[in-house]
Write a structure and sequence with these properties.
The chain is of the alpha/beta class and 650 residues long. Helix content is 63%, strand content 9%. It has 25 helices and 10 strands. It has a 10-stranded mixed sheet with strand order 3-2-1-4-5-10-9-6-7-8, with helices on both faces. The longest helix has 32 residues. The two termini are 20 Å apart. 47% of the residues are buried.
């Protein structure tokens, strides 16, 4: 339960945080949790579930589009780490030939840890990304098939009849999994169409059946689970409720227990008892990174990719996680690798996940900036504004502000939502909303806008907001922001969690008590490359129009300024619109001085990107934070976070 909290604070990937939790509570740590039969059972299900999700989440359509290039990269990213790793394991670490083969095969696997960044930056259809995703299918499948061969060799079942039977059984297994299982799954799902829970039970049963068939065939169970994921890849839609249930049970129960159990097996004392574990870990890390970079480098040369695309491929393919854990766990259980290799693999996972994330973010940001398309405005008629109310003192001001920023062409009503923590508060809060906003609702309806009031019961504010966003299908969410003196703390906690939990356009408004005379809009460098940036500019222009005030735009680079001018020209057209002014401004060195020229009744508006987005610059965001914190508590401000292109994330 505490791992996600520490993960948000430290930025360490979830998989590492859960492993470290297992180290802490396990037999070599505080000895608070025993490795009993229940933990082993759930751990076994967890490893199967990880491999099943690895196959289920791979982009099969993307693989077909870049098939030949993906096969090239897949072969290189499988063979190159293997070619480097086997000599290192054999002659530096002095492992047996079979142990060297298994240990080196771990270096050939990789997990797409950084793929969420690809979605956020709208790079999913980029060729380099497609090649990396397709290569993942090739290399992980090859490693898992090799694992089955290694297990056979370890069991000394190497007679020619055994090899013949193994080849035949492999073919039969894959025919059943890719021909019979998809057909049977479709047939059953059509006949239990309205039985949602039965769908999940069927999928779970197929995973276990695939694991059993793999074991009967002579393959490892994890190969069966991975193959089940590939077989059901086209049958389970990515945005379906079935996919949500599959992810929920995996992320909430099976996978965390498996990762914690892995941590419980890590013997911290071994790390300090001698240099062997550190030597093994160093060799694994050096060989894995060298092999993955060399594979990306050769692929880039052969396909004529530049350094940025090469680094995108390297960043996506250099993280070792799920498949590596699976292989090393199997190897440890059958006695092919010792505790030093096991601990070394955990350190490899830690180092690779952290480094791959950094490389991916940096290279993908460069690629996204280079491929940024012309600004495109979303369809206003499809907009849905939701207002989150929590402070009784600012309810009316916030709802009134919503009427000034709601899209004129919006068809859907404005959803005004309040999150409460128990049933007793629901009726009381609804009465308060109706009493406070009654006149405003009548005024809105007179002007053609409809406001719907509702309360959401939830134990956690952020989770309640996410549920409300999902239920209302909101595309824009308006929040009340705290006084300036509390802004830093709010942004570091509540606001940051909300910004990370949804891809919608977000507005955080500190209400004003006097009439506004001007809008001052501050945009970060390269803000024009953000997918939702045009919608932010439209909001500011609409607000200025409704307040009948001019608007001044400031941006960190000339390209962003020109983009703002183009958006404003497009929005203004031939109609009367607020007067506008544009200026380039160094956010880090000139913002504070420029803010000194703002009038007491000016409304500062800050367009702040989310972390890991295309235009995120920590130094610029820090300067904006400092300026807001320096404002007096009576001064208003507005923070807008652009929506980004992604699957619906709530």
């Amino acid at each position: 339960m505490l791992a996600p909290i520490f993960q948000r604070k430290t930025g360490i990937p979830d998989i590492i945080m859960l492993i470290l939790s297992g180290v802490l509570v396990g037999q070599y740590g505080l000895n608070a949790v025993k490795m009993d039969d229940a933990v082993r059972l759930f751990s076994t299900i967890g490893i199967l579930y990880i491999m099943f999700l690895a196959g289920l989440n791979l982009d099969a359509d993307g693989f077909r589009q870049t098939r030949n290039r993906s096969i090239l990269f897949g072969a290189l990213t499988f063979l190159t780490p293997l070619a480097l790793g086997i000599p290192v394991c054999r002659y530096v670490l002095h492992f047996s030939p079979l142990s060297s083969l298994l240990t080196a095969s771990m270096m050939s696997t990789h997990t797409l840890i950084a793929y969420p960044v690809v979605s956020r930056m709208n790079l999913t259809r980029t060729e380099a990304v497609g090649v990396a995703v397709g290569g993942t299918i090739i290399t992980d499948t090859a490693v898992l098939v090799m694992l089955g061969v290694i297990i056979r060799l370890q069991e000394n079942t190497s007679g020619w009849l055994n090899w013949l039977w193994m080849g035949i059984s492999f073919v039969l297994f894959f025919v059943v999994m890719f021909k019979v299982v998809p057909w049977a799954a479709k047939w059953i799902l059509r006949r239990i169409e309205n039985e949602a829970y039965s769908h999940f039970i069927l999928v779970l049963a197929l995973v276990f059946l695939a694991a059993l068939l793999a074991e009967l065939t002579g393959l490892e169970r994890i190969i069966g689970a991975f193959t089940a994921g590939l077989a059901l890849n086209r049958i389970v839609p990515p945005d379906s409720s079935l996919k949500e249930r599959i992810n929920f049970f995996g992320q909430a129960l099976f996978i965390p227990i498996f990762l914690i159990s892995i941590g419980m097996m890590v013997n911290i004392k071994v790390l300090f008892s001698g240099p062997e574990t550190l030597l093994v870990a160093s060799c694994l890390i050096a060989s894995a990174f060298s092999g993955k970079f060399l594979a990306a480098y050769i692929t880039a040369k052969l396909l004529h990719y530049d350094a940025t695309r090469r680094n995108v491929i390297f960043g996506l393919s250099s993280a070792h996680a799920a498949a590596t854990l699976a292989v090393v766990t199997v190897g440890y259980n059958i006695g092919l690798v010792n505790i030093h290799v096991f601990n070394g693999a955990v350190l490899l996972i830690l180092a690779s996940c952290m480094y791959a994330s950094m490389v991916s973010v940096k290279s993908m940001r460069k690629l996204a900036l280079r491929q940024a398309s012309a600004p495109q405005l979303s369809d206003e008629s499809q907009s849905r504004l939701m207002v989150s109310l929590s402070n009784p003192e600012t309810m009316q001001a916030l709802a009134d502000f919503a009427l000034k920023v709601v899209a004129p062409a919006q068809i859907a009503p404005i959803n005004v939502v309040s999150v409460v923590f128990d049933d007793e508060q629901v009726d009381e809060q609804m009465k308060r909303l109706r009493k406070t906003l009654g006149n405003l609702i009548m005024h809105a309806e007179a002007s053609g806008k409809h406001i719907e009031l509702r309360t959401v019961r939830h134990q956690n504010k952020e989770s309640g907001i996410r549920a409300a966003v999902r239920d209302s299908a909101a595309t824009e969410v308006l929040f009340g922001a705290p006084p300036s003196s509390f802004f830093g703390k709010f942004f570091g906690n509540t606001m940051k969690r909300i910004m990370e939990s949804t891809n919608r356009l977000l507005l955080f408004y500190k209400p004003v008590h006097e009439d506004v005379t001007m809008l001052r809009v501050i945009c970060t460098t390269n803000a024009d490359a953000e997918y939702g940036f045009p919608n932010c500019i439209r909001k500011t222009l609409l607000l200025a129009e409704n307040l009948h005030v001019p608007v001044h735009y400031y941006a960190g680079n000339i390209t962003a300024v020109k983009a703002i001018e183009a958006i404003v020209r497009q929005l203004k057209g031939a109609k009367e619109a607020p007067s506008t002014f544009f200026k380039t401004l160094n956010i880090v060195t000139e913002l504070a001085a420029e803010a000194g020229t703002f009038g007491p009744r000016d409304l500062p508006v800050f367009i702040v990107p989310r972390e890991k987005s295309v235009s995120y610059h920590s130094s610029e965001v820090h300067s904006i934070h400092e300026l807001i914190s320096a404002l007096g508590d009576e001064n208003p401000y507005l923070v807008i976070s652009p929506n980004y292109h992604d699957e619906i994330k709530i």
